[in-house]
Amino acid sequence: MLYENLHITNNGELMIADTSTLDLTKQYGTPLYVMDKQQIIKNIKMYKEAITTFDNAQILYASKACDFLAMFQLCKQENIGVDVVSIGELYTAIKANIPVEHIYYHGNSKTYQELEYAIQNKVGCIVIDAIEEIHMIQEIASQYNYIQKALLRITPNIDPHTFDEVKTGVLDCKFGFAIGTELIDTAIQEIQKSSNIDFVGFHCHIGSQIFEYDAYQKTMDIMLQFVKQMQETYQIHTKELNIGGGFGIPYTNEDSTICITTLFNQLASQLQQFCQTHSIEIPKILIEPGRSIVANSGITLYTINGVKQIPNARNYVNIDGGMTDNPRYALYKSKYTIVCANKMHQPHDSMYTIAGHCCESGDLIAKDVYLPQNLQRNDTLAVLTTGAYNYSMSNNYNRFTKPAVIWVDGNKHQIVVHKETLDDLLRNDVTIKEA
Ligand SMILES: Cc1ncc(COP(=O)(O)O)c(C=O)c1O
């Protein structure tokens, strides 16, 4: 089987950990997000082990990958920090009692009110992404008589092989300060004037779903040269260097893999050598994996509402979810492995396109995937590897409700996010008085 935590029973039904996917659909309906809690813990432990190769390093889970309360609670339990990118994620992290010093607050367009909320709550570190932010942080922090720790986000001009939409380290990009531009000097000079900012170093993140060791090595090299230049020009001693996340994971048999232990060993020796050669104190390394912590823990279960075979064209399978619970095909044309959870013993050898329920032709989950020949109404489809950027990207387009999230742990399970109700959709709507 594709994934170590998925199994098939003797009657051809899909199990996740030791839990029957079909029992879950009977109990909770579909669409349904199902995540294997032990797989998430295993992924976190792998990172914890791999970072020991650095003298001093910390994991920050990039919570945008999957950001409900229980996920933050698990981060607290596993004693890792988090990267948040909105006031909503920050609020959830605080509610989960993540120690605030372990929260790093990102975002390319933070408002004054959001920064004030972060500073009032003593967020561990703000990753500065714009000149205006420096002024706002200084103003707010001085009002609260507080010294705010901060990093500066740098775009290192690296172009990894991934979807254009998830490249974040190229020069022409909305994030951060591009290396080699005067904007960086302006930012540093403004920071050095700000007595309420404790400036500790630099951040970069080159993109997502990256498999190239080379891209990370080049990034490390560029960032270390930059650290040296900042020391020489501005006498900045970089205490923290955040190298972001983006580590790729396989969604289909065609995807490659990246070994985190090998990568971190390479980066750690690169770091040590450079710092030794140039007499630079080795900074603390921060890493921000998101997808690779949660993606392979999750599957999404859907019920088939109908199958349409168009002569000389495609065979469409209509499911009861779509871009509302998984917009990644619509956004990036990303690929998935899909199986029929109640017909696992049947050959998956007929080609289908999986159509979502939204009133958009582009609402597909996958094009031209192989499933059993006799698919029919009420069969259950399982889309694999949906633990990342599915729940967190879900939305209410066409007024569909968001599915529940279930965590399985061996043969036990629990709801961690309730299914939205129709009344939830009306929660903020105002009934206007009839004339
Ligand atoms: C700043 C930052 N850090 C970390 C991540 C996590 O990336 P991934 O989920 O691919 O590991 C992202 C994702 O876009 C990001 O923007």
General description of the model:
With 435 residues, the protein is an alpha/beta fold. The protein folds into two domains: 6-36 and 295-426, Lyase, Ornithine Decarboxylase, Chain A, domain 1, CATH 2.40.37.10; 106-289, Alanine racemase (TIM Barrel, Alpha-Beta Barrel). It contains twelve helices and 21 strands. It has helices at 21-28, 37-50, 69-77, 87-95, 112-120, 131-143, 182-192, 213-234, 260-277, 291-294, 328-332, 422-426, and strands at residues 6-8, 14-16, 19-20, 32-36, 57-62, 81-84, 103-105, 125-128, 148-155, 177-178, 197-203, 240-242, 284-287, 298-309, 315-319, 338-340, 350-355, 364-371, 380-384, 404-409, 412-417. The strands form three sheets. Strands 4, 14, 15, 16, 17, 18, 19, 20 and 21 form a nine-stranded mixed beta sheet that branches. An eight-stranded parallel barrel has the order 5-6-7-8-9-11-12-13, surrounded by four helices. A three-stranded antiparallel beta sheet has the order 1-2-3. Helix 5 crosses helix 6 and helix 8 runs parallel beside helix 9 (260-277). The longest helix has 22 residues, at 213-234. It is globular. The model has no long low-confidence stretch (mean pLDDT 96). Bound molecules: pyridoxal-5'-phosphate.
What is the strand and helix layout of this fold?
Blueprint: E1 6-8, E2 14-16, E3 19-20, H1 21-28, E4 32-36, H2 37-50, E5 57-62, H3 69-77, E6 81-84, H4 87-95, E7 103-105, H5 112-120, E8 125-128, H6 131-143, E9 148-155, E10 177-178, H7 182-192, E11 197-203, H8 213-234, E12 240-242, H9 260-277, E13 284-287, H10 291-294, E14 298-309, E15 315-319, H11 328-332, E16 338-340, E17 350-355, E18 364-371, E19 380-384, E20 404-409, E21 412-417, H12 422-426
Parallel strand pairs: 4-20, 5-6, 5-13, 6-7, 7-8, 8-9, 9-10, 9-11, 11-12, 12-13, 15-17
Antiparallel strand pairs: 1-2, 2-3, 4-14, 14-15, 14-19, 16-19, 17-18, 20-21
Helix pairs in contact: 2-9, 5-6, 8-9
Bound molecules: pyridoxal-5'-phosphate.
Pyridoxal-5'-phosphate binds at residues 62, 64-65, 83, 106, 168, 205, 208, 244-247, 288-292.
